[in-house]
């Protein structure tokens, strides 16, 4: 069993993917070819955002967003310690300082109730992460930002396709950033990403920043980066978009099956009733994680840990924070993701769930895990 079955996905859309790639090879516009603008238009329609700017990666999306907001040395950005390193890395790379706020023990997303205490005169933005595919509590975060005149950047690298109170992830705040890394809900065959906003001035700035700050050829009006998404990668995402809604439905169906088999027996990452996850991962919490992983692997079932060390405890970032963030630390010791993807079968889910229950030494519906954060 694959942790994420990209080969089956390719076979399902092979003709269209091959056709799209062949078109790029035929016209030869490998940088900023027509597929770039086409993809931006389709992604904007999908999210409901006014503007979409494709970029080289999800990390580049965050960096460009921060640059467009003018965030740099001396500024602070409030974010979560329980995320992939790119969230904080982008802040540091523009010269600002990430300020870590602990997460909610149920959803694993940043805890809005703890945000306001971290705001000071240096705070410029809040950067929540929509972890495992589920948006954070964006309305509460936006309200806090509004009271303090701050920007909100949603790190939606894992949640493209998710919804929050009927609105799509990436169109929930000042700026939304996502990734098209191959393992994401909507992925390309390399690196890629996109930025979304309803602010036309910010969109103009981000378009210029991604091409070295150019307003027009060889006229550089701002500091920029080489942040374009390759035409070939845009072609791949365009082909995959045709099946994306169906894939989201399949992820939801498979997650519900996992829920039915595991709920009350294994601790699951909670999902708020006002939002719908894209299920980038299906994540549980277990005791004796290494042993459980080893037993699952012996049964042919791969697993992954997102993430084993919170950012504020990483060697390169430890000096930035004295906060313990105990919930994030506790979660990091117990979270484990199991195979998830639209091309799994119901039988695959059953096999994983039953193997997990055996490995966790839980044999009957009445035996629930008792992990607390």
Keyphrases for this structure?
373 residues, alpha/beta, Aspartate Aminotransferase, domain 2, Aspartate Aminotransferase, domain 1, 7-stranded mixed β-sheet, 3-stranded antiparallel β-sheet, 11 helices, 15 strands, globular, disordered C terminus
What is the compact description of this entry?
37% of the residues lie in helices and 14% in strands. With 373 residues, it is α/β, with parallel strands linked by helices.
Topology record:
Elements: H1 6-12, H2 14-27, H3 34-47, E1 51-55, H4 58-68, E2 76-79, H5 86-93, E3 97-100, E4 123-127, H6 138-147, E5 151-155, E6 163-164, E7 167-168, E8 175-179, E9 193-197, H7 200-209, E10 214-216, E11 219-220, H8 231-262, E12 267-268, E13 275-276, E14 282-285, H9 289-298, H10 326-334, E15 335-338, H11 346-359
Overview of this protein structure:
- The protein is of the alpha/beta class and 373 residues long.
- The protein folds into 2 domains: 232 residues, Type I PLP-dependent aspartate aminotransferase-like (Major domain) (Aspartate Aminotransferase, domain 2, 3-Layer(aba) Sandwich), CATH 3.40.640; 116 residues, Aspartate Aminotransferase, domain 1 (Alpha-Beta Complex), CATH 3.90.1150.
- 37% of the residues lie in helices and 14% in strands.
- It is built from 11 helices and 15 strands.
- A 7-stranded mixed sheet has the order 1-9-8-5-4-2-3, sandwiched between helices. Strands 7-6-13 form a 3-stranded antiparallel sheet, with no helix packed on it. The chain has a 3-stranded antiparallel sheet with strand order 12-14-15.
- Strand 4, helix 6 and strand 5 form a beta-alpha-beta unit.
- The radius of gyration is 21 Å and the shape is globular.
- It starts with 5 loop residues before the first helix and ends in a 14-residue tail after the last helix.
- The C terminus is likely disordered.
């Amino acid at each position: 069993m694959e942790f994420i079955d990209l080969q089956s996905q390719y076979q399902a859309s092979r003709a269209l993917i091959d056709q799209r790639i062949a078109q790029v090879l035929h016209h030869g516009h490998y940088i900023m070819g027509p597929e770039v603008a086409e993809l931006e238009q389709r992604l904007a329609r999908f999210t409901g955002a006014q503007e979409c700017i494709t970029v080289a990666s999800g990390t580049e999306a965050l960096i460009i967003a921060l640059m467009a907001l003018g965030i740099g040395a001396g500024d602070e950005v409030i974010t979560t310690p329980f995320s992939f390193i790119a969230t904080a890395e982008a802040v540091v790379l523009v010269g600002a300082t990430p300020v870590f706020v602990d997460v909610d023990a149920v959803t694993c997303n940043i805890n809005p109730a703890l945000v306001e205490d971290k705001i000071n005169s240096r705070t410029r933005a809040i950067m929540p992460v929509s972890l495992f595919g589920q948006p954070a509590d964006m309305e509460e975060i936006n309200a806090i930002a509004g009271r303090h005149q701050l920007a909100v950047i949603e790190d939606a690298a894992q949640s493209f396709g998710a919804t929050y109170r009927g609105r799509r992830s990436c169109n929930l705040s000042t700026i939304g950033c996502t990734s098209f890394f191959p393992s994401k809900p909507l992925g390309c065959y390399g690196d890629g990403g996109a930025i979304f906003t309803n602010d036309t001035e910010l969109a103009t700035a981000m378009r210029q920043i991604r091409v070295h700050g150019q307003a027009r050829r060889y006229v550089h009006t701002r500091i920029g980066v080489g942040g374009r998404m390759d035409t070939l990668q845009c072609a791949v995402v365009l082909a995959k978009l045709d099946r994306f809604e169906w894939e989201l439905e399949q992820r939801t169906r498979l997650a519900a099956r996992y829920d039915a088999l595991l709920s009350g027996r294994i601790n699951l990452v909670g999902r708020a009733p006002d939002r719908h996850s894209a299920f980038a991962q299906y994540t549980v919490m277990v005791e004796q994680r290494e042993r459980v992983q080893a037993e699952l692997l012996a049964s042919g079932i791969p697993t992954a840990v997102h993430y084993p060390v919170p950012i504020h405890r990483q060697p390169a970032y430890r000096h930035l924070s004295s906060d313990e963030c105990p919930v994030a630390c506790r979660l990091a010791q117990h979270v484990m993701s199991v195979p998830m993807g639209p091309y799994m079968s119901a039988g695959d889910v059953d096999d994983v769930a039953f193997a997990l229950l055996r490995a966790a030494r839980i044999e009957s519906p009445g035996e629930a895990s008792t992990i607390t954060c």
